[in-house]
Design goal:
By secondary structure, this protein is mostly helical. The protein has a single domain, classed as Up-down Bundle (Glycerol uptake facilitator protein), CATH 1.20.1080. It is built from ten helices and two strands; from the N terminus they run H-H-H-H-H-H-H-H-H-H-E-E. The radius of gyration is 26 Å and the shape is globular.
Length: 288
């Protein structure tokens, strides 16, 4: 129980410190710098929190729900997820330079979170941290299935996550945040035993890429190719095109804002010929 309290204290400390730094950065830094860099860095630190604490599956799922709830309400649209940043680029909501900076900062945040977690474990506040230090030298892969099934699992998780995010992207945060939190928690519970259900390439890179059991190429295929494919499929299904690549809608026909009248002609009107401008001339039928 003491170990759990220490781990939860670590998680809450990371959340609190990140929130304080976010508020200070928002006040002191230019808006463009804050939106493009700082909020992504801080959210990456928070994203690592549950894994850095070394919790069991039940606690991780609970904290995962809470952390996405906090993110959705307070983090001003930061994603800490390369697939989300690339989706914003593909729908032309973000420029190439801004997207490149976001991806760079997400990796910097990942490295900073890794250093923070390693330093935290080195204190050995609980017996679990001692074990974790020993396991860190020779950790095992999170892929507990075949390579192609792993790619499929991560792709499906990413597909549903992005589809829900697109569906509720314009909803109020008080509605959107719980829906996304439930979606992520459900996907993690369902797919976790197979691949860890990261569907976040940056997070997976920090947590499992250095572990034995799979080679780098296999990790990239599962945790990068899978989520990116799922994101593209969700985007194409949601709006029928990928604006940055092609404008033509492949799935849905554009809706006209004008309705073409159907049925019988209006009673009392009779067509009498051309009015000289290429339009039919109508004459009112006299009453008897």
């Amino acid at each position: 129980m003491a170990g759990l309290n220490v781990s939860i204290a670590f998680f809450l400390s990371v959340v609190a410190i990140s929130e304080v730094m976010r508020q200070v950065s928002k006040r002191l830094l230019p808006l463009g710098v804050y939106r493009g860099l700082v909020r992504e860095l801080l959210r990456m630190l928070m994203e690592i929190g549950p894994w850095g604490g070394g919790f069991g599956p039940d606690v991780i799922l609970t904290l995962l729900f809470i952390i996405y709830l906090i993110h959705g309400v307070s983090f001003d649209g930061a994603s800490a997820n390369p697939t989300v940043s690339l989706q914003e680029f593909l729908v032309m909501d973000s420029s190439f330079v801004a997207t490149a900076f976001k991806l760079l900062v997400q990796f910097v945040g990942m490295e900073a979170a890794g250093i923070l977690t390693t330093h935290y474990w080195s204190w050995e506040l609980t017996d679990f941290h001692l074990i974790q230090n020993l396991m860190a030298l020779d950790c095992s892969s999170s892929i507990h299935t075949s390579l192609y099934h792993g790619i499929f699992v991560e792709g499906v998780c990413s597909f549903f996550f992005h589809l829900v995010a697109l569906k509720f992207q314009h909803s109020h945060p008080l509605y959107r945040a719980p829906v996304l939190a439930v979606t992520v928690t459900t996907l993690a519970y369902t797919a976790g035993p197979f691949t860890g259900a990261f569907f976040n390439p940056t997070l997976a890179s920090m947590v499992t890429f250095h572990c034995s059991g799979n080679i780098l190429q296999e990790y990239v295929q599962v945790y990068w190719l899978g989520p990116l494919t799922g994101m593209l499929a969700a985007l194409l299904l949601y709006q029928g095109n990928i604006p940055r690549i092609f404008q033509k809608n492949l799935l849905y026909s554009p809706k006209s804002k004008y309705r073409t009248p159907k049925g019988k002609a209006v009673s009392g009107l009779k067509q009498t010929g051309d009015n000289g401008e290429g339009q039919p001339q109508l004459r009112t039928k006299p009453r008897s």
